[in-house]
Design a protein that fits this description.
Layout: H1 3-19, H2 24-31, H3 35-58, H4 61-74
Helix pairs in contact: 1-2, 2-3
């Protein structure tokens, strides 16, 4: 995932922990972005979520563990 996507996800996580819910306007204020920019990014993240859910039901356990291992190595 690109750094900007990670920034959105981290901001969403922080705001959710702080406020219980997250609105696009909250993200826009936190990141100092326009609301249309945030709406577009959220739309892209929703497409990614749908793809991840579909993949979860299609790929084998072996492939899943390989991806998980790879992602873990990349974050170190």
């Amino acid at each position: 995932m690109y750094e900007s996507g990670e920034n959105y996800l981290e901001t969403i996580r922080r705001l959710r922990e702080k406020n219980g819910t997250v609105r696009s306007i909250d993200i826009a204020h936190e990141l100092n972005f326009s609301k249309p920019s945030v709406s577009r990014a959220i739309g892209i993240l929703k497409a990614a979520e749908e793809d991840a859910c579909r993949m979860e039901h299609i790929i084998s356990e072996e492939v899943f563990l390989g991806i998980k291992r790879f992602m873990s190595e990349q974050s170190q």
